[in-house]
């Protein structure tokens, strides 16, 4: 699943917290209203429970009646916080709907991105929904129930000429521990060094809005992020950013679950039910990200695809 294609730019659909750089007056689509500060739950969308999917749940989760969801909530428009600090975004609505299909109340644990998988393996959360790119290395720790495909997309200041395939010597901003940070840029940097060219200066930030702001303020030459995130950031910077090149390295997003678990089976069944009854596509269309929709919910596509 490493093809090259272009995803359409997203409409400006929600607020991105880039102080002094963007228009934050856009409305917030969707019904998700969870509190991102700790163990508060969100209001699930109007989704009918799927009894067959719910029957696959681990007994302890079914009895608790809650689905504990780990998310970073710093990657708009997929997962981020509204002005009240509540997690929102199309990824949050997907996980809300999974919980509803399973007859559970969604409860969000907001943390740094790189803490989510350890929280799953350590039994602190039931699933992780945070725009995880499903790759072979991560599959060694958790399963991924695949629900979307996204490419990598660069952006630069409007009027600049930046080529992601010729990035030697550039300053590139990323959110730390994303696939752009761990896979894409190290490979590009090695190619630069092997060719005797200047290294890429990778600027790592805790959140995507910080990485975006670095480019807007001229601290970095470009940013690299998942395509829906980059196009959204461009739409919120009042013309200050532009796409740099086309989307590339298309790969699946996955809901992270405990390996070889009943939770993996339940989440896959819930998402497949959402796909079949139209809930899945309704959410993607609402946020303008339907270009990455799947026609079947799979598990661990990185190793099986």
Automatic annotation (TrEMBL):
PANTHER family: ARGININE-BINDING EXTRACELLULAR PROTEIN ARTP, MEMBRANE-BOUND LYTIC MUREIN TRANSGLYCOSYLASE F. InterPro entries: Solute-binding_3/MltF_N. It comes from Cryobacterium tepidiphilum. CDD domains: PBP2_MidA_like. SMART domains: PBPb. Residues 27-46 are annotated as: Disordered. Coiled coil: none annotated. Residues 1-25 form the signal peptide. Gene3D superfamilies: Periplasmic binding protein-like II (3.40.190.10). SUPFAM superfamilies: Periplasmic binding protein-like II. This is ABC transporter substrate-binding protein. Keywords: Signal.
């Amino acid at each position: 699943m490493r093809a090259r294609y272009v995803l359409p730019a997203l409409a400006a659909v929600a607020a991105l917290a880039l102080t002094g750089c963007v228009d934050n007056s856009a409305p917030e689509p969707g019904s998700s209203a969870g509190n991102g500060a700790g163990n508060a739950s969100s209001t699930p969308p109007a989704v009918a429970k799927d009894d067959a999917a719910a029957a696959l749940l681990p007994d302890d989760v079914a009895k608790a009646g809650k689905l504990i969801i780990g998310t970073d909530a710093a990657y708009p428009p997929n997962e981020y916080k509204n002005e009240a600090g509540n997690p929102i975004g199309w990824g949050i609505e997907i996980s809300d709907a999974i919980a509803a299909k399973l007859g559970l109340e969604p409860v969000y644990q907001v943390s740094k991105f790189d803490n989510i998988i350890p929280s799953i393996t350590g039994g602190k959360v039931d699933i992780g929904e945070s725009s995880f790119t499903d790759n072979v290395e991560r599959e060694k720790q958790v399963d991924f129930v695949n629900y979307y495909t996204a490419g990598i997309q660069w952006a630069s200041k409007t009027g600049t000429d930046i080529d992601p395939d010729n990035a030697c010597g550039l300053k590139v901003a990323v959110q730390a521990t994303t696939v752009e940070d761990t896979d894409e840029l190290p490979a590009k940097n090695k190619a630069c060094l092997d060719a005797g060219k200047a290294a890429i200066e990778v600027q790592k930030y805790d959140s995507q809005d910080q990485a975006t702001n670095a480019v807007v303020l001229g601290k970095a030459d470009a940013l690299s992020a998942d395509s829906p995130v980059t196009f959204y950031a461009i739409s919120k910077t009042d013309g200050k950013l532009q796409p740099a090149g086309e989307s590339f390295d298309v790969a699946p997003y996955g809901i992270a679950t405990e390996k070889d678990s009943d939770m993996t089976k339940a989440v896959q069944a819930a998402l497949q039910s959402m796909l079949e009854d139209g809930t899945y596509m309704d959410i993607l269309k609402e946020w303008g990200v339907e270009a990455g929709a799947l026609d079947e919910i799979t598990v661990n596509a990185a190793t099986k695809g």
